[in-house]
Specification:
Elements (H helix, E strand, L loop, with lengths): L2 H19 L3 H7 L4 H29 L2 H20 L4 H29 L3 H19 L3 H4 L6 H4 L1 H17 L17 H7 L4 H32 L6 H5 L1 H11 L1 H30 L4 H7 L3 H19 L5 H30 L1 E4 L2 E4 L1 H22 L15 H4 L9
Helix pairs in contact: 1-5, 1-6, 1-9, 3-5, 3-17, 4-5, 4-9, 5-6, 6-13, 10-17, 11-14, 11-17, 11-18, 13-16, 14-16, 14-18, 16-17
Main location: membrane
Protein name: MFS transporter
Pfam families: Nuc_H_symport (PF03825)
Length: about 425
């Protein structure tokens, strides 16, 4: 295969590991009888690992190890802990195995992108296409569960989410050794003041508003993955073996939306594009709240995922790359990544399981969730974020100085970000 094809497969395997377990993590923990606080701890482990991983990958891993070997070892060990997670039904063994897996996996998000950038002859031209392999991997990871799960899957069946992820992780470990050799980056003088200067930019009103709105939207975005699968199976009535396929429809539309993002930004500018992205979240959760009895509507609204991600999060990465001073650009990307992958994930993991617990009641001896009231919370948060952005976000430029490169929405991934 060509280098681009090999890197495309790498991205597909890399993200498929994540996509195999992510949609059903919280429903599975409910099946195991974990309390809301226990579920919050498990969910926040991924966020903590994201925060640690961003610094570890950038400051240690890629300066001391050949990237493909680091990738192979991390995925092999991570696969072992995924197996441990699958067969742990008590909370503490489950939490320890999941935390260990998270700490091993998250740095590979950045390292895999580093391998791609280092081995593409024209990364500015080709990285976007290579990174789309991750979207393909996430979608394909959902298909085995049509056959592995029943319509009313039990915990013994759902544990396959971790076993399938482990198998993919082992496959990725072996495949990593066939990737082009990518030696450690030469030790360079680290600008220790860059983070301080990036934080100093928060004193500028447009940056401060965008930082706050990014935090709000990251909580809403991560909350979707906490609540969506259980909603589809318990309230809408989607078969347990089909819910992940329905959720993956959003990743399909992401490809189309990302392809047209440059045109949209040129015509609408920063503020309008980002506001539409946040309103996409509000529309999706309002549909969940008021159209739960219409399966076609619930399936169709999944297609908003591309707008939710590309029009806001990808545009944030482009904004930072286009507007921030070059010497603090990497650190600024890192700060926004901390919100999206780390802080927003932790807050969502505590907030939404607690709300689900509070809004649950027993009907006819069966526990039920007041999903309408539940989904009005993220809808309200998204509308509040959109209002802040529309009224207070006043950047110096209306839009990008020039049409953004197609890979630009993914550039932030090199610092640890990823689109689920």
């Amino acid at each position: 295969m060509s280098v681009r094809a090999r890197l495309f497969v790498m991205m597909a395997l890399q993200v498929a590991v994540w996509g195999a377990w992510a949609p059903k993590l919280f429903p599975y923990m409910t099946m195991l009888g974990f309390s809301a606080s226990q579920q919050a701890l498990v969910g926040s482990a991924w966020g903590v690992a994201s925060i640690v991983g961003i610094f570890f990958a950038n400051q240690f891993a890629d300066r001391n190890f050949a990237a493909e070997r680091f990738l192979g070892l991390s995925h092999f060990l991570g696969g072992l802990f995924l197996v441990g997670t699958a067969f742990s039904t008590a909370f503490w063994p489950f939490f320890v195995c999941y935390l260990a897996y998270s700490l091993l996996y998250v740095p590979t998000l950045s390292v895999s992108n580093s391998i791609a950038f280092a081995n593409l002859k024209e990364p500015a031209k080709d990285f976007g296409t290579v990174r789309m392999g991750g979207t393909v991997g996430w979608v394909l990871a959902s298909w085995p569960f049509i056959f592995l799960l029943s319509a009313h899957a039990t915990a013994d069946q759902v544990r396959w989410i971790f076993l399938i992820a482990a198998l993919i992780s082992f496959g990725m470990a072996g495949y990593s050794l066939s990737l082009p050799h990518t030696p450690p980056k030469p030790t360079q003088t680290v600008d220790r003041l860059a983070w301080r200067r990036a934080l100093g930019l928060l004193r500028q009103p447009p940056v401060a508003v965008l930082f706050l709105v990014t935090f709000i939207d990251s909580v809403v975005h991560n909350g979707y993955f906490v609540m969506a699968d259980a909603f589809l199976t318990n309230r809408v009535g989607v078969a347990g073996n089909l819910s992940m396929v329905i959720l993956s429809l959003g990743q399909v539309t992401e490809v189309v939306t990302m392809a047209g993002l440059g045109i949209v930004l040129a015509r609408l500018g920063w503020r309008t594009t980002m506001t539409i992205g946040i309103l996409g979240h509000a529309a999706r959760f309002l549909a969940f709240a008021f159209l739960a009895d219409s399966l076609p509507a619930i399936i169709a609204v999944q297609l908003l995922h591309g707008i939710c991600y590309a029009f806001f999060f990808a545009t944030v990465y482009i904004f930072v790359d286009d507007v921030f001073p070059k010497d603090v650009r990497v650190s600024a990307q890192g700060l926004f990544n901390l919100l999206i992958l780390g802080v927003g994930n932790v807050v969502a993991s505590f907030l939404f399981p607690a709300l689900i617990n509070r809004l649950s009641h027993v009907v006819g001896g069966v526990a039920a969730v007041d999903y309408r009231s539940l989904f009005l919370v993220p809808s309200g948060l998204a509308l509040f974020g959109a209002l802040l952005l529309a009224l207070l976000f006043r950047p110096a430029s209306r839009g990008p100085a020039q049409a953004p490169r197609q890979e630009s929405p993914h550039v932030g991934l090199d610092r640890g970000a990823a689109s689920p």
